[in-house]
Design goal:
- It is a single chain.
- The chain contains 4 helices and 14 strands.
- It has 282 residues and is α+β, with helices and mostly antiparallel strands.
- It folds into 2 domains: 99 residues, no CATH class; 172 residues, no CATH class.
- Strand 2 and strand 3 form a beta hairpin.
- Helix 1 packs across helix 3 and helix 2 packs across helix 3.
């Protein structure tokens, strides 16, 4: 019974919001029309009681005008409020359903985590380049304290989706217990900029040396997806005329609703990658 009254109170609040503003805007048309219909319907009763005469004094005209204006606003409010109250339950239902379309089983870090390493070549010499890897931080958002089983993150762009590598294990899935987090590798950018937290160095092959040594000085920087085998995957090239890329990732686990996350990639920005949660999982 308590939930019944709470729900209808929410309906009343939803119907009430903005009604007075809308009533003031439509008083002359909507309220006036309703008032005219009401007066037309009760005109025989008014004639019988001799209440149909128009005021003949200035004060009477002023009071009559104020009464008509107030009645128009009140009637417009009543019509708008009752109409909105009638559909409030359906509106609240669909609004709540839209919220449940986005999974509450997962938590995401406040920002994309990035880690930078100095690049060294295979012969042991140093370079002017840095490799920055970007990770989507995923946590257990279950309210019952259970473990999320077989959590995976897939990156959708051109072609088949890429299964993101788990930083902690190197595999493509992980169980996340309540209160814990996992880092899913999205990809990397090799450039002359230090973007993330410095974490040692990494050795690149001679093939990479020829590639990056030629492209980076020319400003040809790209975001590279990495597969589970750590081989280089597809690359998003930086285009000054079209700097922003948007790609989707889907976070899933056993027996829970998946979460879809949109990644915004801008290789010219200080923080190249940001994310936003999509309203729907489908």
């Amino acid at each position: 019974m308590r939930r019944f009254f709470i729900f209808h109170w929410f309906c009343i609040q939803h119907a009430w919001r903005g009604c007075w503003t809308k009533a003031n805007e439509t008083a002359s048309l909507l309220g006036g029309a309703v008032l005219w219909l009401i007066l037309l319907g009760i005109s025989p009763q008014l004639r019988e009681r001799h209440l149909i005469e128009v005021p003949t004094t200035y004060w009477g005209h002023a009071g009559f005008s104020v009464a008509l204006a107030a009645a128009s606003v009140i009637l417009a409010f009543a019509v708008i409020f009752l109409r909105r109250l009638f559909v409030a339950s359906a509106h609240l239902y669909w609004a709540e359903r839209d919220k449940t379309d986005t999974s509450t089983s997962f938590r995401l870090g406040e920002r994309i985590f990035s880690e930078t390493r100095a690049v060294k070549w295979k012969d042991g010499s140093s370079s002017d380049f840095f490799e920055t890897k970007f990770y989507l931080t995923v946590g257990n958002g279950l309210s019952d304290g259970k473990t999320l089983k077989r959590v995976q993150t897939r990156i959708f762009f051109l072609g088949e989706p890429v299964l993101a590598r788990v930083k902690e294990t190197g595999s493509g899935e992980i169980d996340i217990r309540h209160g814990e987090w996992a880092y899913f590798e999205l990809g990397r950018i090799v450039s002359k900029q230090i973007t993330g937290l410095m974490s040692g160095s990494v050795v690149f092959s001679d093939e990479h040396r020829r590639d990056y040594g030629h492209n980076i000085p020319l400003g040809h920087i790209g975001f590279e997806f990495c597969s589970l085998s750590r081989k280089r995957g597809a690359r998003l090239a930086h285009n000054p005329e079209l700097p922003n890329w948007s790609i989707f990732t889907v976070i899933s686990a056993d027996d829970v609703t998946a979460m879809r996350v949109r990644l915004n990639i801008n290789m010219a920005a200080t923080n190249p990658i940001s994310y936003e949660v999509s309203a729907h999982t489908g």
